[in-house]
Amino acid sequence: MHPTFLYGTAWKEDETERLTRLAIDAGFRGIDSANQRKHYFEAGVGAAIASAIAERVVRRDDLFVQTKFTYRRGQDHRLPYDPRADYATQVRQSFASSLEHLGVEAIDSYVLHGPSRGRGLGAEDFEVWRAMEELRAAKKTRFLGISNVALEQLETLCERVNVRPAFVQNRCYARTRWDAAVRAFCKDSGIVYQGFSLLTANVAELRSARFREIVARVGRTPAQIVFRFARQVGMLPLTGTTNPAHMREDLAIEDFVLSDEEVAKIEG
What we know:
The chain is of the alpha/beta class and 268 residues long. 43% of the residues lie in helices and 15% in strands. The chain has an 8-stranded parallel β-barrel with strand order 1-2-3-4-5-6-7-8, surrounded by 4 helices.
């Protein structure tokens, strides 16, 4: 259905193609992007995918490609759609642009890159979601998702749409017990929770004595401990590392397991 790890391509600019290709070469088969030139270079992701396929490193079917529709307020002047068009048209234009950038015929997961407002949902959110549902019905994408979403927004969305999100992607803070409330709702609803900024959003917590004790006892890197923890609590983690050695390390978490006590300590 989906990979067990995602490589995030945000904030890499001219290095996007090189780093995405390094990630694929290292073994990542899930690639996360967005049609938001302000923070992503989607065409660079597509170039990396094309070269990896051309050189027979992977087949298209081996890759899980995820991208996003981003509202005008999250964009800069380099828009992938006509801002004067209705929202459904903007979705269709952005999606078509993503297909062109990525050099693919279909997207595996298409994500609403955050609701239109900080609290609640607006009419535009449901208009956008209906357009995304149409793309799924046309088999242009397999799954739908939403990111940067609060629990009450997610509950409302799930109550009112025909196709519930298959994925939720949120920045994940240890201080909220790793987004415990949203993760619990996702678990109960059969939604896969994707956690990003697992390291960068939790620098202080990962320097704590309690966490360092676990690192010393297990004998793995702090990043490996966090990503193994994420997997064990049912999370699909993202990493955006630019270091090839760290890419390989991040993927090398299959040969150890954290104890229930260690998981509880990290989660708490």
